[in-house]
């Protein structure tokens, strides 16, 4: 296994981070760069320009995943794939996704700085729509690449304004015509990401070596009651969709304690119709996000949500519909990739801990087609999906240094 560290250039990494963070920047140091938006186009153009400056060959697939390939000495060797996503949450953070793409870019730049010729090609990627906010589900680009999402279904998916993914891709010029999915099975995939949780900071460790990712289910619930006047309508005759929804929202919160220690439940979206101060709500639509490392627990949780929903609607005399938008099983990453990260952290003399990630990542789907793994860096106060998302710069540098050297190890490993 190769040894000898590849030195990254922290100042160049910082300059790239500041340049990319300026695209879609919010007034409070966050990012509002929704997938396939004009700002996503601008940051993609910046990314492609940086890849072209590196002399790597660039290709775009039909769902807009952008790949760059740095050749290795063995043209027949399967490539190491590295990257993450450049789209953000609405008013999200600057580190989620973006840092992983820039870690991969800095790695290619550092390999060039030191004239390192790797045996395997190293491919870099920006995955389309990891966040699943504007278009559902999440992990859209990596899911199409790995065969988990059907391309045609994805292209027909619409946002709240009725724009399809295909239209949005064409609008920004990133509806590629490359074949979908791996033209050759990559040897491995590595993604650097902010932890988006409190544990690295709490434990004082620089790097998270990720064993796996929670499984999750996304549900959409619609409760239909009957609108009526808020004044003269007697309370006992009402069919108030929002009262039933409120019961379910608090029941969903309580489920997490009932179902298991690692279970997390969230109602993130909720809309009320007709949404007027003096009209009894006739329809409420809301989402449920339910996660656990145990897939059977997630299934149990979905059934429990439906039971709570049926009971609440029975009590209020309203109807409901429940749609499962998406479900992904938990992920167990490759021990070989994990070991390369651990060895790189040890060689760099950086403290690390093994952990399971609570947020979904593209690496989960890529793990279906190759050996995947992740490197986490600490999130201050665990804050994320929030403009206050922050990682200390020395932690960024430490993580990217480990990432770059783990990538180099993977690029030298045998079949
Ligand atoms: O939902 C997630 O965990 C990811 O941020 N898309
Ligand atoms: Mn992310
Ligand atoms: Mn995210």
Quick summary:
With 415 residues, the chain is an alpha/beta fold. The chain is built from twelve helices and 14 strands. It has helices at 10-21, 38-53, 98-113, 140-145, 151-156, 165-172, 199-203, 241-259, 295-316, 335-347, 362-366, 393-412; strands at 57-60, 66-70, 80-85, 122-127, 188-194, 207-213, 215-224, 264-266, 270-273, 283-292, 319-328, 331-332, 352-357, 371-377.
Question: Any chance you could write out the topology, listing elements then pairs?
Answer:
Elements: H1 10-21, H2 38-53, E1 57-60, E2 66-70, E3 80-85, H3 98-113, E4 122-127, H4 140-145, H5 151-156, H6 165-172, E5 188-194, H7 199-203, E6 207-213, E7 215-224, H8 241-259, E8 264-266, E9 270-273, E10 283-292, H9 295-316, E11 319-328, E12 331-332, H10 335-347, E13 352-357, H11 362-366, E14 371-377, H12 393-412
The chain binds (2S)-amino(hydroxy)ethanoic acid and manganese (II) ion (MN) (2 copies).
Highlighted features:
binds manganese (II) ion, 2 domains, Alpha-Beta Plaits, Aminopeptidase, 12 helices, 5-stranded antiparallel sheet, elongated, 415 residues, alpha/beta, binds (2S)-amino(hydroxy)ethanoic acid
Average pLDDT reading:
96
According to CATH, the homologous superfamily of the largest domain is Zn peptidases
Q: Summarize the main sheet.
A: 9 strands, mixed
Helix count, per DSSP? 12
């Amino acid at each position: 296994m190769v040894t000898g560290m590849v030195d990254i250039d922290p100042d160049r990494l910082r300059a790239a981070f500041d340049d990319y963070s300026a695209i879609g920047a919010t007034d409070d140091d966050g990012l509002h760069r929704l997938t396939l938006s004009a700002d996503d186009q601008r940051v993609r153009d910046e990314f492609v320009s940086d890849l072209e400056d590196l002399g790597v060959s660039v290709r775009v697939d039909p769902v807009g995943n952008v790949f760059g390939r740095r050749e290795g000495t063995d043209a027949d060797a399967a490539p190491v794939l590295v990257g993450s996503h450049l789209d953000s949450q609405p008013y999200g953070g600057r580190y989620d996704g973006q840092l992983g793409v820039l870690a991969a870019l800095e790695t290619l730049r550092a390999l060039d700085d030191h004239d390192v010729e790797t045996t395997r090609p190293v491919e870099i990627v920006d995955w389309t729509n990891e966040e699943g906010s504007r278009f559902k589900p999440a992990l859209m680009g990596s899911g199409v690449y790995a065969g988990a999402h059907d391309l045609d279904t994805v292209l027909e998916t619409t946002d709240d304004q009725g724009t399809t993914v295909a239209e949005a891709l064409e609008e920004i010029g990133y509806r590629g015509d490359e074949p979908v999915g791996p033209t050759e099975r990559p040897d491995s995939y590595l993604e650097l990401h902010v932890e988006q949780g409190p544990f690295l900071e709490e434990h004082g460790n620089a790097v998270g070596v990720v064993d796996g990712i929670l499984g999750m289910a996304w549900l959409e619930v619609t409760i239909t009651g009957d609108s009526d006047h808020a004044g003269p309508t007697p309370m006992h005759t009402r069919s108030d969709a929002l009262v039933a929804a409120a019961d379910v929202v608090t029941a969903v919160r309580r489920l997490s304690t009932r179902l298991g220690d690692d279970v997390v439940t969230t109602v993130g979206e909720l809309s009320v119709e007709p949404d007027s101060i003096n009209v009894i709500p006739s329809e409420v639509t809301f989402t449920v996000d339910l996660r656990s490392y145990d897939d059977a627990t997630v299934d149990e949780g979905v059934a429990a949500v439906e039971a709570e929903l049926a009971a609440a609607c029975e009590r209020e005399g309203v109807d409901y519909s429940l749609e499962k938008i998406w479900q992904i099983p938990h992920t167990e990453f490759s021990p070989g990739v994990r070991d390369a990260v651990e060895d790189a952290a040890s060689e760099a003399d950086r403290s690390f801990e093994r952990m399971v990630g609570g947020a979904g990542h593209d690496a989960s789907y890529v793990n279906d087609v190759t050996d995947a793994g992740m490197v986490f860096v600490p999130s201050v106060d665990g804050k994320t999906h929030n403009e206050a998302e922050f990682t200390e710069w020395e932690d960024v540098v430490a993580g990217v240094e480990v990432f770059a050297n783990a990538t180099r190890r993977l690029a030298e490993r045998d079949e």
